[in-house]
Amino acid sequence: MDLINITRLQKKPKDMIKILPLNLNQIKNIPSFKQEKISTDNTTNPLERSPQKDTVELSGIKSTKNKKISAKDLASTKQLFEDYKTVVKENLLGDELNYLLRPKVNAAGEQVFNQKQTKIITLAAKKISFYKAVAKRLEKDGNEAMEPALKQLKKIFGGEKEFGKYLKAREKNGQPVSKDSISIYNKLIKEYQSEYIEGDVLNSFAKEYCKKTYKQLDKEEKELIKMYLEGGDMKLDARGYKALEESLKTTPKDYKKAVNWVRDLIGIRLVLPDDADMKKVEEYLTKAILHNDIKVTKVSNYHSTHIYPYISQNTAKLWQQSSPGMLLVNNSDVRKKNGYTTTQMNIEFAIKDKNGKVKTVLGELQIRSEKLNYLGQIEHLIYDILAKKDISKGIPELQKYYDSTGIVDAVNEVFSDPVKENAYLEYEKTIYARIRNGETKNKHVYTEDSDYPLLADFGLGQYEVLSFDSLDLIDKTANRIKKKYGQKH
Fold first, then answer.
1. Which label site among 31, 50, 252, 383 has the fewest CB atoms less than 10 Å from its CB?
2. Pairing state between β 175-176 and 266-272
3. What is the phi/psi pair of residue 344, to 5°?
4. What are phi and psi of 267, to 5 degrees?
5. 266 in the Ramachandran plot: left (φ > 0), alpha (ψ -120 to 50) or beta?
6. Residues 6 or more apart from 66 whose CB is under 8 A from it?
7. Terminal Cα-to-Cα distance of the chain (whole angstroms)
C-alpha cells in the first residue's frame, strides 16, 4: 500500500523551506485533531434493473411465515443469504458491485434475489473460500522456506561478519516468519479486484458515464458512479456481467496466478547504517546475480525526484543484461510523490522441502537505511487508515488511544482534499530528501537549507498530529499499549 496510489500530481512549492536536523524524540505532546461526526441515513435500495422474468423469489428467513416452503428450499435460501453477507463483508467485488447485489423487496415484503444475483453471489462465495485456502497453504510454504531463504541471502552478503548481519526478516515473537494468511488473503482480494473488477467489469460503467476506462477516472468520478449505481441509474451490461461471471470461476490456472500475486511471501530487508558503503552492497549483489547464486526477477528503485536511489540505475541495467527475463522497472513508474525511497527486488528462492524436493518460493528483498526504514514504519499508520484496516487490532484500549489523538479524522480530511493531500506529500518528500541525500554525503539543491520542515510551512498547521514527530510518539505509545493489552484479546 503506498500513498502514491491514492494521490494526484502535486506542485512543487515556489519557495524553498527551511530544514533543521530531524529529532523524533523532541515532541512531548501531540495536538489532538478533532472533527465533527456527520451522521448519514442511507435508506435507498440500489438494485440491478432486470426483466421481471429474470426474477426468482428467494425470501429471507423472516419473511417465510406465510409461505409453504420445503426444508431443502429453506436451507438453500438460508445459505444464499449467508453467502450474500460473506460476499459483502469480504468486499470481494468492491462497493460498486455490492450495490447491484442488494436484494429487492417484493409486494409481499419479502427480500428476493434475481437469477443473476443468485449466480454471482454463489460464485463469489466459492471464490472467497478458494482464496482463503490458498492463503493458508502459502503461509505454510513460506514459513518452511523462511530460514533457508534468509540463510542464502546472508551468505550472499558476506555472512554475519559482513553485511549479512544487517538482514532482517519479518518476525513474530522473535522468530522469522512468512507473510501471514490474513495478509496474503487481503493481497489476493486486492489483486483480483485490480485485474478483473477494475478491468472489463467496471469499465462498462466508466465508458457509459464518461467514455473512459475505470482506472482513468479520478476520485470524484468514481464517487459519482457509486451514486448512480446506488440510485439505480446504472446496471451491469451483458459484457460486464459475462466478464464478472468468468472471473469468478475457479480453474487450476487460478492457483498459479494467485501464487504469483504474492511476490513478498518471504519478506527480508537489508537495513543499513547511515554510513554504509552502497558500492559494497552493489558488488555483493552483482557477484551473486552473475554467478546465478540468486534469481532476481524484478528490480524497482523507489524514489522521488531530487532524491538519490539506493542502487544506481546503471548497476541495475547490468543485472538485467546478465539475467534474461529480469524486469527493470522504469524510474518514472516507481517515482514516489511522498519521497518514499527503497530498492525492492523480487527473488525466486529454490528451497528443498522435507522430502528433498526443490520448489520455488517467492520473496522480496528491500534495501534502505535505518532512518528511512523507521520513517516508513511509523508512516504506515496513514496507509492502514486509508485502506480502512482495523488499526486497533481488536484492542479496545488501543482504539481509545487512537480516538483521543484524532488521527483517523485528520488523515481522512487531508487525503480527501487534493490541495491538502499534495501539500502533505510535499512535506513528506522534503524530509525523505533531507535524510537520504545526507546519507550520500552529496549536496542537493532541494535540501541545501538547514532548517527543519514544519507542517505549518505547507499550510497544514492544524494537522500537527500527522507530523513525523507526532507519528513517532503515536507509534511508541501504541506499541506499549499492544504489549500491555494485546495478549488479552
1. 252
2. unpaired
3. -115, 125
4. -115, 120
5. beta
6. 108
7. 26
Q: Is 369 left (phi over 0), alpha (psi -120 to 50) or beta?
A: beta
Hey, what amino acid is at 175?
A: Q
User: What is the rounded CA–CA span in Å between residue 324 and residue 336?
Assistant: 27
Give me 463's grid cell: 494537522
pLDDT of residue 52: 40
How far is residue 134's CA from residue 444's CA, in Å, rounded to a whole number? 47
* pLDDT single digits (tens) 243-260: 899 999 998 899 999 999
Mapped onto helix, strand or coil, the DSSP state of residue 458 is helix
Residue 200 burial (10 A CB sphere; 0-12, 13-18, 19+): middle
- At position 465, the amino acid (one-letter code) is V
Find all residues with CB under 8 Å of 467, minimum gap 6, and list them.
27, 454, 455
Q: pLDDT digit string (tens) for 179-221?
A: 999 999 999 999 999 999 888 788 878 887 778 888 888 878 8
| Type of residue found at 10 | Q
- Report d(CA 198, CA 396) in Å as an integer: 35
The model's pTM is: 0.76
Q: Judge contact between 362 and 265, C-beta under 8 A.
A: yes
Q: For 403, what's the count of Cα atoms within 13 Å in the CB-facing half-sphere?
A: 10
Half-sphere exposure for 223 (CA within 13 Å, toward CB)? 4
Q: What number of other Cβ atoms are within 10 A of residue 438's Cβ?
A: 18
Q: How far apart are CA 462 and CA 460, in angstroms?
A: 6
- Tens digit of each residue's pLDDT (9 = 90 or more) over 286-321: 999 999 999 999 999 888 777 888 888 889 899 999
The Cα–Cα gap between 262 and 189 comes to 11
What is the separation of C-alpha 225 from the centre of its chain, rounded to a whole number of angstroms? Answer: 23
Residue with cell 468520478: 221
Determine the Cα–Cα distance for residues 142 and 184; give it in Å rounded to an integer: 11
pLDDT interval class at 45 (50, 70, 90): very low
* pLDDT score for 487: 62
Hey, how many other C-beta atoms are within 10 angstroms of the C-beta on 331? 16
Task: Please state, rounded to an integer, the average pLDDT across all residues of the chain.
Answer: 82
Alpha helices, DSSP H, located in 291-417: 313-322, 370-386, 396-405, 407-414
- What Å distances lie between residue 335 and 16, 269, 326, 414, 418, CA to CA? 21, 20, 20, 22, 19
- CA neighbor of 204 nearest in space, from 248, 231, 234: 234
Instruction: Decide: 420 and 460 in contact? Cβ < 8 Å.
Output: yes
